[in-house]
Amino acid sequence: MLLIFSLVLTTSCNKVDCDLIEDENATFEEVFPDESERFNNAIAEYIADPTEDNCEELQDAFEEVLDALEKYDKCAENREEAREFRDDIEEARDDLKDLCE
């Protein structure tokens, strides 16, 4: 779970605008407004009411965030960095499978 949050908070290129994430002042909310809103709402709902349905919504919101982040592997400065980034996304996806268990 920590890895998922790390990816969400620290990673902010298919055809994507790498300039968006190169701006050190850009926030996750600015780069991914739709995913951010759904993710934040899902967390709030789950904290307020930790039901299976709310957990599944949180899990889906995490998956959407990872899908959005995954497109940015093309922004990596080198192949190793891109490989590490993809590995982190896959590890987060694996962790996600256990979120509601």
Fold blueprint:
Elements: H1 2-10, H2 18-22, H3 28-31, H4 33-48, H5 52-70, H6 79-96
Beta-strand portion reads under 5%
Low-confidence stretches: 5-14
Report the mean per-residue pLDDT as an integer.
82
Number of domains: 1
Based on secondary structure, the structural category is mainly alpha
Radius of gyration: 14 Å
Number of helices: 6
> SSE order, as H and E?
HHHHHH
State the end-to-end distance: 13 Å
Q: What is the share of helical residues?
A: over 70%
Number of strands: 0
Characterization of the model:
This protein has about 100 residues and is mainly alpha-helical. It has one domain (about 1-95). It contains 6 helices and no strands. It has helices at about 1-10, 20, 30, 35-50, 50-70, 80-95. The chain starts with a helix and ends in a 5-residue tail after the last helix.
Provide a compact summary of the structure:
This protein has helices at 2-10, 18-22, 28-31, 33-48, 52-70, 79-96. It has 101 residues and is mainly alpha-helical.
Question: What are the salient characteristics of this protein?
Answer:
101 residues, mainly alpha, 0% strand
